[in-house]
Design brief:
By secondary structure, this protein is mainly beta. It contains 2 helices and 8 strands; from the N terminus they run βββαβββαββ. Strands 1, 2, 3, 4, 5, 6, 7 and 8 form an 8-stranded mixed sheet that branches. The longest helix has 13 residues. The mean pLDDT is about 95.
Length: about 160
């Protein structure tokens, strides 16, 4: 199974908004989600998260700006090559303003108005926990339609556990 990254940007004090991107092409097209993607050969998970965020939004962050908050495993029995382990980072500080790219259209949403109906179904389970300050480890198995969550395991993820 391949590894991938996902960055979630949150702003406000207390946090009141989250930046999501509307996927314009490729896997997940037409859905809102965080920003991220594949890890290149020789690249660390953190470096991939930083690179993908900048490629998709123009936003620049340092490794210290990306807090590891989750490890999500996605299984698609009807499409096994879609399976992946996604390393989730919460970002609270950055340089620049989000700009639309060929792949993503960034949109700020109030935390209580997140468009879960326009996201992968799993987001409704783990994203509120992450935005509330929890760290999570989860596993989602999708039905044959590759859209509907069939099985789910989600637990708080101890901060001292190795992230790998």
């Amino acid at each position: 199974m391949r590894d991938a990254t996902l960055c979630i940007l949150r702003r406000g004090n207390p946090p009141s908004e989250v930046l999501l991107g509307l996927k314009k092409a490729g896997f997940g097209q037409g859905k809102y989600g965080g920003f991220g993607g594949k890890i290149e050969p020789g690249e660390t998970i953190e470096a991939a998260a930083i690179r993908e965020l900048e490629e998709e939004t123009g936003i620049r962050i340092s490794e210290q700006d990306a807090q590891k908050v989750g490890r999500l495993t996605f299984l698609f029995p009807a499409h096994p090559d879609w399976g992946q382990v996604v390393h989730v980072f919460l970002v609270k500080a950055w340089d620049g303003e989000p700009v639309e790219s060929d792949e993503m259209k960034p949109v700020w949403f109030k935390i209580d108005e997140i468009p879960f109906e326009d996201m992968w179904q799993d987001g409704a389970y783990w994203l509120p926990l992450v935005l509330a300050g929890q760290t999570v480890r989860a596993r989602f198995t999708f039905k044959a339609d590759n859209e509907t969550v069939d099985e789910m395991e989600i637990a708080e993820w101890p901060g001292d556990e190795q992230y790998g």
